[in-house]
Amino acid sequence: MTGRLTTLLGALAASTVLTTGAATAQSDEPIRVGILHSLSGTMAISETTLKDVMEMLIEEQNEAGGVLGRPLEAVVVDPASDWPLFAERARELLTVHEVDVVFGAWTSVSRKSILPVFEELNGILFYPVQYEGEESSRNIFYTGAAPNQQAIPAVDYLMDEYGIERWVLLGTDYVYPRTTNRILETYLLDSGVSPDDIMINYTPFGHSDWQSIVAEVAEFGSEGPLTAVVSTINGDANVPFYRELANQGISAEDIPVVAFSVGEEELAGIDTEPLVGHLAAWNYFMSVDTPENEEFIEAWHGFIGDEDRVTNDPMEAHYIGFNMWVEAVEAAGTTDPDAVIDSIIGVSVPNLSGGLSTMMPNHHITKPVLIGEIQDDGQFEIVWETAGLVPGDAWSDYLEDSAMLIADWRSPMSCGNYNVESGTCSGQNY
Amino acid sequence: MPTALRRLIGLLLVSLTLVMVPTGAGAQDGVRPMIDILAEGNFRDRRAAAEALAATGDPAAAPVLTALLEGNLYGRPSDGAVFIGVEEGDQLTLIDPITGETVDQVAERSMDKVRVNNPLRRSLRTIIGVLTLSNPDPAIRMEAAESAFQNPDPNTIDTLDAAIAAEENSAIRAVLEQARAAAILDDDAGQADQLAAIETLRDRGDRDAQALLNRLAQQAEGPVAEAAGDAARRIESNLAVWGIGQDAVYGLSLGSVLLLSAIGLAITFGVMGVINMAHGEMVMLGAYSTFVVQEIFRGLDPVFFDYSIFVALPVAFVVAGGVGILIERTVIQWLYGRPLETLMATWGISLILQQTVRSIFGPTNQQVANPSFMSGAFELGHLTITYNRLWIFVGAMVVFAALVLILRRTPFGLHMRAVTQNRAMAANMGIRTARVDALTFGLGSGIAGIAGVALSQIDNVSPNLGQGYIIDSFMVVVFGGVGNLWGTFAGAMTLGVANKFLEPWAGAVVAKILILVLIILFIQRRPRGLFPVRGRAAET
Fold first, then answer.
1. H helices of B410-507, where?
2. Shortest Cα distance from B150 to chain A (angstroms)?
3. Which residues of chain A have a CB within 8 Å of the CB of B500?
C-alpha cells in the first residue's frame, strides 16, 4: 500500500513539475519569426529594406509586451537572390529554426519555389509584394496587390481622366508582366479599345539600351489619339528607360507612363527631374497624409537612424501582414499554424492610408488603390484614389482559364481554386 | 486681300486686348474671386476656371497660370485665398497674385497646394501659350508657337495671324505658320486655304504633321482629302528613309557603349589572355567613383557641378586601375597559364567587390545626375540624337584612339606587345615582365573604370552594374578576334548596328537571342573571330 501511495505521489509530483515546466516554457520561450529576404545578390536592392522593417516591427511588438505574453525573436536568413536557395532556406527556417511564421520573398519565382515547402511542412508565409495573381495557397497570405488592386484601377484612371485611347504595354520578360499584360489586354479589348491601338513589347532583365523602343513608342503615340504607357518594367531597367524618355523629349504631358514597379525606393537612385508627372499605382505612398503614416515614418527613421530613408508599398504590406498575424495569434491563443490560418480570416487591422484592411477568405487583403504623380523630390503626389477599399482577386476575371475559379479557405470549401462551373476543387495542382 | 483683312482684324483684336488690360487690372475685385476659385473643385473645374481667367485678359492671368502649371500656387485653408508661393526650405513666401507683393511667410504645411495633373498641365500650356505669343523672350514665344501647333484650335487663327505679322524671328514665324495651318485644317475655311495649309504641313514633314494630315484625309472629302492623303504618304515614305538612318545612329551608339565596356577587356583578356570575370566590377568601380566625385561637387558651388565628370574620369581611371594592379599582384600573377583557376579566382573577386560596394554604399541605386551638356537631344533633319549618347560615342572614339596610340607609339606599348608575344625573349631583352604585366592589367582595368563613368550616365549605379556588361564584353572581344583592338572596334559596332536593325521587327528579347545564335554560327566558321591575329604570336 505504501508502495502504491509513493508511486501515486511520485506521479503527481512529476506531473506538477511537468506542467509548471511547460508553463514556464510557454511564457519565456520566444516566438520565432522567420525573415526570408535576400541580403545579397540582385534582389538585395529591394529586399534588404524589408528585412529592416520586419526587425523594427518585431522590436516594437516586444516593447509592447510581445505576443501571448511571449517575446518575439527574429530569425534572419539570406537566400542571396538565388531561387533554389530560397526553398532550402525556407526548409531551414521551418525545420531547423522551427519558426512559427515567415515573412519573405519578393519575386514571383522565389515565391513559387518556396510554396511547396510551406505546403509540405505546413508553415505560414506572408508575401508582401504586388504580383500577377493566379494563385491562392492555404499556407500563403498575399498582402501585396493583386492585378485588380493596381493595374486595372490605373487603366481606368487614365481612360476617365486623361481620355487615353492608345496603349503601350511595356514589360520585362517574365511571369509578372506577361500575366498582368494578358489581363490588361483582355480588359482593354473588353472596354472597346481596338487591337490596333494596343502595342505590347517585352525586354530582357536589366535592359539598358532603350533608344529604339522609346522611339517606337513616340512614333506609336504620334499616330493619333492620346497614348499612355503602362509599364511593368522591373527593377534596374527603369532608370535607363526614364532617362531615354527624358532625353528624347517625351514628357508626361505627351505620353504619360504609369508604372507598377516604381516606388519611392527605386526613385531614390534616379535624378527625378525629368520624370516629374509620370505616374505610379500603389496601395500606399510615403506621402500619404495620415497620423498612422506619420508615426510609421518617424519610427522607421528612428530605427534605421537615417532621416533620408524612404518608406514604400511592400513595407506597408509587411506592416499590415505582421499586425494581422499578431491579432490572429492572440485570437487563436496559440501560434499553431492550423489555428492561425483559421483565425486570421476576417481579421481587420489599420493600414497606413487611414482605413482598415481585412484578410479575406482567399488569403488576399482589401486595400485602397492610389495613383501618384512623381515629384522632383522623388516622392509621389497622390492625384487619385479609389472611393473605398478594393478586395484582392486571386483569380482574374479577365483571363479565360481563371475566370471561373474562386478561392475560399473557410470550411467547408477550403479550396484555393474552386471551379464554379464544374463544381470541383482541383487541389493544389495548378 | 482676305488675308490682309484678317490680319487687320487680328491686329485690331490684339490692340483691343491691350487697351482693355488696364480696365481689367482696375477691376481687381472681379479677378480675385476668379483666382481663388482655382483652388476649388476637381481638375476639370480647375481647367474651366483657368480658361475663364485667361479670357479676362487680365495681366495677372499669365503669372498665376504659370505658377499653377509649375505647382507654385497655394490656397490658404482659413479663407480660401490663393497665393503664389516661393519655397525656401519648410517656409513659404506668399506673393499676392494681383499686386505681386510679398504678403506673408508661413510654414509650407499650413497651406494647401493647388494640385495639377497632366491633362490640366497640357491645357494650361495651351492657355498660357496664347497669352505669351507676344512675349519679348524668343524662347517663350517659340514654346508658345509649338504648343499652339500641338493643340490646334480654329478660334486662335486670328491671334496667330496677328502674331505672324508681328514676328521677326523667321524660325518662330515658320512654326507659327504651321500652327495656323494646323488650325485651318480643323476650320471650315475655303478649299484653297486648306490646300495651302496641307502644303505647309507637308513641308514640316514630321509625325505630328502626318497625324494631322491622316485625320484630315479620313474626315474631309474630295480634293482636300486626296491632297492630305498624298501629303501624308509622302511624309511616310520620307520618314521611312530617315528611319533607317535613325536605326543606324542607335546602332552606332549601342556599339560605342559595347566598345567602351569591352575595350578594357580587350587588353586584359585579348592581349594578356587573362579570363577576367571581375572586369564588370571594374566598370562598376568607375561608376561609383563618378558618384563619389559628384557628391563632393554637390557640396560646392553649383556652377562647378557640370565639370564634375571631368574630374571623375581620371579618378575612375586611377581607382579602377589601382584595384586592377592590386588584383594582378596578389592573385592573378600566380595563375598565369592556368585559365580555369584564373576564371574561378576572378569570379570570386567579382563577388567580393560587389558585396564590398554593397556594404559600403548600400544595396540601392545611387543617383548620378547628367551634367547639363549631356541632357536632352537635338534634331538633325528628322534624326533625333541625344546628347548623352553623342558624348559617349565621342568618348569611346577618344579612348579607342588613345589606346591604339599607347600600344603602337609608346615604349610601354612596345614592352607590352613584346611580353605578350614572347615572355621569355622579352625578359632576356631586359624588360621587367612582372612590372609590365601589372601595368597592362592596370591599364585595362583603368579603361574599364572610364567606361564606368560613361555608363553611369545612362544606366543604374548599383553593385550589379558590371554584371550586365560582362557577357556582352566577352562576346565583343571573342567575335572581334582575341588580341586585336581593331577587331574589338569592328565587333562592337557590328553587334550594335545588327542588334538595332533586328530589334524593331523581332523585339528586344528575340533580337538578343538572334545575335547570340549568329555569333555561335560565326565562331563555328571562324573560331578566331573577325580579325584573327596571325603569325607566330597567335600560336602561343
1. 411-421, 423-428, 433-455, 467-480, 485-506
2. 10
3. 211-212
